[in-house]
Design a protein that fits this description.
This protein has 363 residues and is of the alpha/beta class. The chain has two domains: 300 residues, Thiamin diphosphate (ThDP)-binding fold, Pyr/PP domains (Rossmann fold, 3-Layer(aba) Sandwich); 30 residues. The strands form two sheets. A five-stranded parallel sheet has the order 1-2-3-7-6, with helices on both faces. The chain has a two-stranded antiparallel sheet with strand order 4-5. Helix 6 links the parallel strand 2 and strand 3. Helix 1 runs antiparallel to helix 10, helix 2 runs parallel beside helix 8 and helix 5 packs parallel to helix 6. The protein is globular, with a radius of gyration of 21 Å. Bound molecules: thiamine diphosphate. The site of thiamine diphosphate has 15 residues, from strand 2 and strand 4.
Length: 363
């Protein structure tokens, strides 16, 4: 296997990237905010304050670096392990926490699982629970952008396990044939729940699969935020020039459990975890920025403190809200005018709520 693209420990002082010092600090800060939010929400789940959570710990550089290469209007069809993308694109953390609580201020009205965000204003399309369906949605949207003559590109991300789904083949093939402006970001975090890579694919990594579809495939150090930015920026520029899709394989590691319903100590060897912990993407970038004089110890401390304060305030705001959206909201958002059978069901539900305190008949 060729070595994945890495920049952070390169000896070159000037990496030739079009990023200002402010950009570099923003990348760092977003990664720290993402980590702090994850840590807190896992704890909340353990305390029974939210029902479920999926942390992206260890993979912050992969998606934050990738998203930084996008314009604000570009489309994102993300994996469920990409919390840093909405944060980077300016979504308030508080809104993400409301979603995890499924409270009245959750913009998905408690209808989605926690972490399955959806933010229309940044073209961040709802995360799906069935694996890989975002890949075909993204390929179709990218083709639509091309047909409409728009300059927007589409980024879709998914795990190594998701590449075993038929939708991976359909989406990659369709986008390549139609030269759709789509960036396929495969987040290789070594495991699909407990299934390791050698049970997932017999090929030498995932980037090589691009060749069979007729698109470039690049393998990148997913724990190197600058390498991620550079690789995705090249793919975005290529897509915007009308030259079609690219597959980017980010090599990283899931430092968290798969979800709060999982115990990775049962299948991840301790040495493997330790090896990757030493390559923690936030610490690596921090070291680089310190060396470059872009940040100092004070900045590191104040960033951590501010992120913790932001998470605490968001949780406090979420817990102060009424927990469940009103039952009536079940009937919103599909029809402009409710058809008769739904009007009847709503009446019946209202009666149930009045008589029994909850919808769903007689308990
Ligand atoms: C079609 C489908 N099959 C199975 C599942 C159950 N499932 C949820 S997550 C997961 C593992 C996914 O692994 P990967 O794509 O590598 O992403 P990761 O969780 O490692 O980020 C599985 C099998 C599902 N959600 N959808």
């Amino acid at each position: 296997m060729t070595r994945p693209l890495t920049l952070l420990e390169s000896r070159k002082k000037d990496l030739g990237l079009d990023l200002s010092e402010e950009d570099l600090r923003r990348l760092y800060t977003t990664m720290v905010r993402t980590r702090k939010m994850d840590d807190k929400l896992v704890l909340l789940q353990r305390q029974g304050r939210i029902g479920f959570y999926l942390a992206c710990t260890g993979q912050e550089a992969t998606h934050v670096g990738a998203a930084f290469a996008l314009e604000q209007d570009d489309w994102v069809f993300a994996h469920y392990r990409d919390q840093g993308i909405p944060l980077l694109k300016g979504i308030e953390m508080e809104r993400m926490v409301h979603q995890c609580f499924g409270n009245v201020r959750d913009n998905t009205k408690g209808r989605q699982m926690p972490v399955h965000y959806s933010f229309k204003e940044i073209n961040f399309v709802s995360i799906s629970s069935p694996l890989a369906v975002q890949i075909i949605q993204a390929a179709g949207t990218a083709y639509a952008m091309k047909v409409k003559g728009r300059k927007d590109v589409v980024l879709t991300s998914f795990g190594d396990g998701s590449s075993s789904e038929g939708d991976f083949h359909s989406g990659m093939n369709f986008a390549a044939v139609r030269k759709a402006p789509c960036i396929f970001l495969l987040e290789n975090n070594q495991y699909a729940i407990s299934v390791p890579l050698d049970h997932q694919t017999a090929s030498d990594g995932f980037a090589v699969k691009a060749e069979g579809y007729g698109m470039p495939g690049v393998q990148v150090d997913g724990n190197d935020v600058l390498a991620m930015y550079q690789a995705v920026k090249e793919a975005v520029d290529r897509a915007r020039r009308g030259e079609g899709p690219t597959l980017i394989e980010a090599v990283s590691f899931r430092m968290a459990a798969h979800s709060t319903s999982d115990d990775p100590s049962r299948y991840v060897p301790e040495e493997e975890y330790a090896e990757w912990k030493a390559k923690d993407p936030i610490l690596r970038f921090e070291k680089y920025l310190l060396k470059q004089g872009v940040i100092d110890e004070d900045f590191i401390q104040s960033t951590a403190k501010a992120a913790e304060g932001e998470v605490d305030a968001a949780v406090k705001a979420a817990e102060a809200e009424q927990w469940h959206p009103e039952a009536d909201t079940l009937f919103d958002d599909v029809y402009a005018e409710l058809p008769p059978h739904l009007l009847e069901q709503r009446e019946r539900m209202r009666r149930d709520v009045e008589e029994n305190g909850m919808p769903g008949g007689h308990h």
